[in-house]
Amino acid sequence: MSEDNLAFRKELVSLLPRLRRFALALAGRTDLAEDLLHSALERALRNWSGFQADRRLDSWMFKIMQNSWVDMRRAEARSPTQPFEDLDFEGEDGRQTIEQRDEMRAARAAFANLAEEHRTVLALVVFEGLTYVEVSEALSIPLGTVMSRLSRARSAMAALMQRATFAKVKKQN
């Protein structure tokens, strides 16, 4: 194995937590996210010689993952994404924990109901902390499109969360 290939593999391994998080953001379910991650890693390892050293590996991998996700969706005609698994929250009393879980369920459902292009941009900016320019490069879309999609995603999330809150209050009364 060449020194370049070894360095590439080491950097790829260091990206695994971020890649898992992005796969889960795209797929919404752990089983699909793992399939997506494996597919993207396989493509990257098979085509590592096509990686340009002057480019960021994370951007290259996010693009591969997005393309793999599109391919998986086309090939398997999957149904819309499902919410993430429940997370545990610590609180002083049961009410606080229940409220936090309700809020997380609403946020996960709102995120899952976003259009795929909005979900992708939001995940890269919010979860991965990429700049708008980095997202533009990773997804091969204009900077204005990144900003537009992000704005629409945030607006849609706010509207969906507001509806969930209103429905909860209405149900309680």
Automatic annotation (TrEMBL):
The protein's matches in InterPro entries, at most eight in alphabetical order, are given as: PhyR_sigma2, RNA_pol_sigma-70-like, RNA_pol_sigma-70_dom, RNA_pol_sigma70_r4_t2, RNA_pol_sigma_r2, RNA_pol_sigma_r3/r4-like, WH-like_DNA-bd_sf
Q: Where is the RNA polymerase sigma factor 70 region 4 type domain?
A: 106-157
The record, for Pfam families, names: PhyR_sigma2 (PF22029), Sigma70_r4_2 (PF08281)
Question: What are the GO BP annotations of this UniProt entry?
Answer: DNA-templated transcription initiation
In the UniProt record, does the keyword Transmembrane helix occur? no
Please report the stretch or stretches of sequence annotated as the PhyR sigma2 domain. Answer: 14-65
Keywords, comma-separated and alphabetical: Sigma factor, Transcription, Transcription regulation
User: Molecular function (GO) terms listed?
Assistant: DNA binding; sigma factor activity
Q: Which family does it belong to?
A: Belongs to the sigma-70 factor family. ECF subfamily.
Q: What is this protein called?
A: RNA polymerase subunit sigma-70
